[in-house]
Amino acid sequence: MSSPVLSRPVVVAEIVRSGFVEGHHYGSVVALGRDGTPEWGVGETEAPMLPRSCNKPVQALAMVRLGLDLTPELLALACASHSGEDFHVAGARKILGTVGLDESALQTPPDYPLDDATRDELIRAGGQRSPILMNCSGKHSAMLATCVINGWDTATYRDPDHPLQRAITATFAELTGEPVTAVAIDGCGAPLLSTSLVGLARAFRALAIAEDGPERLVADAIRQHPAYVSGSTRDERTLLTAIPGAIGKAGAESCYAVALPDGRAWALKTDDGAARVRPVLMAEALRRSGVLDEPGVDAAAVRRTGVVELLGGGKRVGDIRACF
């Protein structure tokens, strides 16, 4: 059975080489206005989809509500799809250490760091894939810590029926304003909850506008430590640094959500899941909503996140262009 997100595919980007359009990316994008209602959208924005790692800040919120108490940078890491840099790995170990656990408790699949340079250095040194290097180890470390704090079993923390996962599901439904109609298994092995693009944007908006409480703690952690949420060289870090007060999170299958303290929020997904087009679409969505013209925004930096060059003979001969 095909996913509902494919029911109304529209072209959201063109692949242009030497002036010739050689292909397209199809997808959906939604923007919420300051009042939280949809301001504009393209494609299918109200059907259930799987937001992948865009779910992580909401999962982290549920854990904070359950008593997880971390410093801001470690809370940001709990929201992360991290690059596997040394400070990410050290942070995940620190989260585990706060409750007397070590990385042997992790049930993330062994992996190499996402960051190319870090991965290459590890391989040259004879290093191997490991659970702590997997990009979701910050989230999983936080899940384990939350279980210990509440006296819950740590061996089954990924089970959808575990008290931790039930609490996360309830928080997710609350913030998205939609029932969870599908529970899948994410790449890290933890439960993955469905919502629409509108629901995803609504959840990020709830975090971004919070003035206090656990929601504000999560939002401020993302704002203050964007490198912990992604990595030192990632486009998400550049975008969050360029827009005052922004929070955001990217996910697999070309998912992305961003929100501002004034209540505006954006969420997107492509049908082919191509990671390369994700920042192109978000940069265009923010431009279309007028964010790049606002005081304090580093518009040039945001635009740079949306540049994907196509090479020919080692030289730029084209790019991927948003067209919505």
Task: Please explain how this structure is put together.
With 324 residues, this protein is α+β, with helices and mostly antiparallel strands. The protein has one domain: Beta-lactamase (3-Layer(aba) Sandwich). The chain has twelve helices and ten strands. Strands 1, 2, 3, 6, 7, 8, 9 and 10 form an eight-stranded antiparallel β-sheet that branches. Strands 4-5 form a two-stranded antiparallel ribbon. Strand 7 (255-259) and strand 8 (265-270) form a beta hairpin. The longest helix has 14 residues, at 137-150. It is globular, with a radius of gyration of 19 Å. It starts with 9 loop residues before the first strand and ends with a strand. The model is unreliable at 1-6 (pLDDT under 50).
Number of helices: 12
In helices, the fraction of residues equals: 25-40%
Number of domains: 1
Sketch the major β-sheet. 8 strands, antiparallel
Q: What is the N-to-C order of secondary-structure elements (H for helix, E for strand)?
A: EEEHHHHHHEEHHHHEEEHHEE
Radius of gyration, rounded? 19 Å
* CATH class division: Alpha Beta
Shape: globular
| CATH 2nd-level architecture | 3-Layer(aba) Sandwich
Arithmetic mean of pLDDT: 96
Distance between the termini: 28 Å
Which structural category fits the helices and strands?
alpha+beta
Relative strand content: 15-25%
- The CATH topology comes to Beta-lactamase
Q: Low-confidence parts, pLDDT < 50 over ≥5 residues?
A: 1-6
- Count of distinct strands: 10
